[in-house]
Write a structure and sequence with these properties.
Elements: E1 2-4, E2 7-9, E3 15-19, H1 26-39, E4 43-45, H2 63-75, E5 80-83, H3 90-96, E6 99-102, H4 110-117, E7 123-126, H5 133-145, E8 151-155, H6 172-180, E9 185-187, H7 189-193, H8 199-209, E10 213-217, H9 235-245
Parallel strand pairs: 3-4, 3-10, 4-5, 5-6, 6-7, 7-8, 8-9, 9-10
Antiparallel strand pairs: 1-2
Helix pairs in contact: 1-2, 4-5, 8-9
The structure holds manganese (II) ion.
């Protein structure tokens, strides 16, 4: 069980982490933070250092974005999570972010794993989209072995032959992790599906299977989002999702 300020991850209730794929401006992240807080989200997400498939895509606001995210978290009393991409950024990101995220593409970046293992912040380790559960747990060991016991796993879909969704959500990973590990596991239906239409159903499945929570991308205007617009939930959809998951029986593992 991992505690971040007033939030407990892996405790008796599932947590909801929500926010934009990328911090695009101060106004954007303040607006989204206020909205997701009003719906009951407990943690604010936002990408500042973005690992994009193309070098010509928006790369994130970097440290400037982190300051906006930090301000929004403070203002609306939400712990914040953001991705750190390189070992040299770890110290500054750990200074401002409450949880550090290791992205799917960096799951086996061992120098980065060792470096975040030296911080005192909880680490959310996303599953590599080509990684087995064993490889994922071995990566978690890199962080644990450095003395940081606060590791949160995040299943975000794996690459399969199926092309109807961006990735294939491996819901069975939750059951396997519950058997093999003591670490809490979160589901990210946004990156798993790549399509906002499927997210409410996958989020409900995540709660029902006993995941410690979900992480979803929310944007007031997905069409103008600088990254991952097709999978961003509009405000009304997110609010409905929050209402719906509140009624799902949750089995703690
Ligand atoms: Mn994203």
């Amino acid at each position: 069980v991992i505690s971040v300020q007033q939030v407990t991850i892996g405790g008796p209730l599932p947590v909801v982490i929500a926010g934009p794929c990328a911090v695009e401006s101060r106004e954007q992240v303040l607006n989204i933070a206020q909205f997701v807080k009003s719906c009951g989200a407990q943690i604010l997400r936002g990408g500042c250092f973005k690992p994009r498939t193309s070098p010509y895509s928006f790369q994130g606001l970097g440290l400037e974005g982190l300051h906006y995210l930090h301000e929004a978290g403070k203002k609306f009393d939400l712990p914040i999570i953001t991705e750190v991409m390189s070992p040299e950024d770890v110290d500054v990101v750990a200074e401002y972010a409450d949880i550090l995220q290791i992205g799917s593409r960096n799951m086996q970046n061992f120098p980065l794993l060792k470096k975040v293992g030296t911080t005192r912040r909880p680490i959310m380790l996303k599953r590599g989209f080509m990684a087995t559960i064993d490889e994922w747990l071995s990566s978690a060991e890199y962080i644990l072995a450095m003395g940081n016991s606060q590791v949160i796993l995040c299943e975000r879909g794996i690459r399969t032959f199926e092309s109807a969704t961006r990735n294939t959500l491996d819901i069975s990973a939750v059951a396997v992790i519950h058997e093999r590990s003591h670490l809490p596991i979160i589901i990210d239906p946004s990156h798993a599906s790549g399509n906002w239409r499927y997210i409410p159903q996958l989020a409900k499945a995540a709660i029902a299977v006993g995941a410690a929570g979900i992480m979803v991308e929310v944007h007031p205007s997905p069409k103008s989002a600088l990254s991952d617009g097709p999978q961003a939930l509009k405000y009304p959809t997110f609010r409905t999702l929050m209402e719906n998951i509140a009624g799902i029986p949750y089995v703690m593992h």
